[in-house]
Design brief:
alpha/beta, 19% strand, 149 residues
């Protein structure tokens, strides 16, 4: 039996969110949170739109998922995010006790690992799902910014 709802399926949904961010002039990072093969939260970066440095895709998703579930813990949930979370988002994910994080592209400059931020000890991490597509969105965004586009 083929599982249509695999990591690639949900990462594509996160990439859809990243593309919405790009259309808004935001850094193109998207995220979805899944529980029982159902997307319960979706978002993208909104830092420029909301004029709020904390309005990262992951933070928006955590809040939305907690509201959906009616509680602050995401113990049975998986976050799909197109870029490795920063230390702020990793801290929030730690406190949410999220079960699993699936990451598209790594962030060698501001990612939680380079900043030595810990996730909850029970959180599982999968790297590199649709990394090429995720990295291309980010790289193209910043190249266009540098080129004045």
């Amino acid at each position: 039996m083929i599982n249509l709802f695999d990591d690639n399926y949900f990462m594509r949904r996160a990439l859809d969110e990243a593309k919405i961010a790009l259309q808004k002039g935001e850094v193109p990072v998207g995220a979805v949170i899944v529980s029982n093969n159902q997307i319960i939260a979706r978002s993208h970066n909104l830092t420029e739109t909301l004029n709020d440095v904390t309005a990262h895709a992951e933070m928006q998703c955590i809040t939305s998922a907690a509201n959906y579930l009616g509680g602050k813990y995401l113990k049975n949930c998986t976050l799909y995010v197109t870029l490795e979370p920063c230390q702020m988002c990793a801290g929030a994910l730690y406190w949410s006790q999220i079960f699993k994080i699936v990451i598209g592209a790594s962030d060698a400059h501001r990612g939680y690992r380079v900043m030595k931020t810990q996730l909850h000890p029970k959180t599982k991490v999968i790297d590199g799902i649709m990394a090429k597509e995720s990295k291309e969105l980010i790289d193209d965004f910043f190249k266009n910014k540098r080129d004045g586009k």
